[in-house]
Structure formats: C-alpha cells, structure tokens
Amino acid sequence: MASARTLLRLVLLVQLGAALSIAWALLHRGVPAWGALLAGAGAVVVVRLAINMNNFAMAARAASDTPPEYRLGPAARVRMLAEEFWASMLVTSWHVPRGCARMTVHRDSSRVPVLLVHGYGCNSGFWAHLEPLLNRERISHASIDLEPVAGSIDDYAPLIEARVQALCAATGAAQIAIVAHSMGGLAARAWIRAHGSACVARLITLGTPHHGTVLANLGLGANAAQMRRDSAWLRDLAAGDTQDVRSRIVSIYTHHDNIIAPQDSSLLPGARNVAFGGVGHVALGSNPRVLAEVLRVLRELQLVHA
C-alpha cells in the first residue's frame, strides 16, 4: 500500500483538479478569472471544513461527560473549531505530504532523547511544531513512519524497535522517551509488550484511544479495526500491561477530542492522566498549552548513559 505521503499527495491532486474544474465551469459562464479561481479554491475549503465539523458532530454523539470546568462558551468553541480546522489543513495539505522520518542528535546533550510516533493515516510530518521546540532545548530526537498505512498495529513494533536501537546508538543513551499521537500510543504500547520497558523512561501519549473510539468503525485497515471500542485486541493489550509499564505512561488528552469518542477513552488506569479542554484531536500536536506540558514532562527525566 502507498505511504501516507503518497496518498495525501494524490488527495491534493484530486482537490486541485476539482478546484480547477469549478473555475473552468465558472469561466465559461462569464465569471472573471480571479473570481472563478477563488470560487474553485473556496469550494474545496468548504468541503474540507464540512468534513472537519462532521467529525465534531459524530464525536459529540458518543461523547463522555465534560466536567464543568472544561465546558466551553460560544467564543471558546469557535476558537477551538478554527484551531482544529487550521491544524488539520496544515497537517494533511503541507506537513504530511512533505514529511519523512529523520534523526537529530545534539552532541553532549544532558537530556533524554525522544522518539516521535505519529498516528493513523499520518507520518512523521505531524511533528513539525514539536521538533523545533526539542531542538531549542537540545533534546535529541528521531521520528518514524509507520507503514503500511492500514497495517496491523502489532506489525509496527519491529519498526519502532529498530528506531529505538538506532536512537540509543546515536546518542549513547540507555533510555529514551516516546511522544506518540493517537494510534501511535497504542503502537508504542504494543512495542513495549513485545520488547519490554527497560529502555523506556517515559511514554507520553496525546489523544490515544486506549479503550478505542467509535469513529474507528469508519476507518479502513487492520489498525482501524483494532481501535474500535473495547476490541479484543485492545483488551489483550491492556492485559499485557504491568503496573511498572502503566507508571511510565503520561496520557494527555482533551475533553473536546473530535476523533476519540468517548473522550475518556484516553484515561488509562495506573498512568498519569492529564486533561485539557478546548483542543481538537489534530491540534494536540501544535497547541502551545499541550506542547508546553509535553516539554514539562520531558524535563523531569534524567539521562542515563548506556
């Protein structure tokens, strides 16, 4: 199966074709060229916005209770919707189509290196906002592309193992931290189940459906099936977690997630659970408050050399 980068490039070509077709039709109706092009591009944006808002509507139908302190007024809700739409547009139309896994090593750094693991239908381009912050703090880091896109989550474990070993070898560290978005958190837990937790200083998950999401019923592939609510695969994964593994996990989630529903699916017993409000699913990778929390957790860690 094609990579997420290739698939999204094809989607962008389809969108470009649709925009140009609309513009061409309007030109033949006497609309000025600039107006026709603007209308064609606008139509694509409106469709993308409708898809994004529909995700919020579907997630709302299966939503968990929102604590009073996280409930949003109209203005805050509009800000959240705008941030999530913009984040989704950037990720799918710019970052992922250009994304490729890489490693950055800061020599003589005293910080625990970090492996970045993306979520479903995405790639390492998702981390475009976090990587500059890691560089600012001189934190060595590597990203990974989980492929095939629709493969089994268990099959990503060898890829993660190889990347962890490469990062440890490049930095001389005995332990690494993992920051994982959405499905990436499940892939990291599946890797720990297969290879153990000895080299894991911390696993930080962002909007990970630890107990599944109803929206996975609409997804394609073995990994989507595994992320359905209380699937047999998720039950087996939970049964394999030890108390020590759970104590190394920090689950960061949002009460307004538009992909993970119910939103309390990200709550993981035995882990440190950190809640946010007014943030959408994709925006977890770029929201300043969330990224500040990720850095705060990473600052807690002490580097151990191999």
From TrEMBL:
<keyword id="KW-0378">Hydrolase</keyword>
<keyword id="KW-1133">Transmembrane helix</keyword>
<feature type="transmembrane region" description="Helical">
    <location>
        <begin position="33"/>
        <end position="51"/>
    </location>
</feature>
<dbReference type="GO" id="GO:0016787">
    <property type="term" value="F:hydrolase activity"/>
</dbReference>
<feature type="transmembrane region" description="Helical">
    <location>
        <begin position="7"/>
        <end position="27"/>
    </location>
</feature>
<keyword id="KW-0812">Transmembrane</keyword>
<dbReference type="Pfam" id="PF02089">
    <property type="entry name" value="Palm_thioest"/>
</dbReference>
<dbReference type="InterPro" id="IPR029058">
    <property type="entry name" value="AB_hydrolase_fold"/>
</dbReference>
<keyword id="KW-0472">Membrane</keyword>
<protein>
    <submittedName>
        <fullName>Alpha/beta fold hydrolase</fullName>
    </submittedName>
</protein>
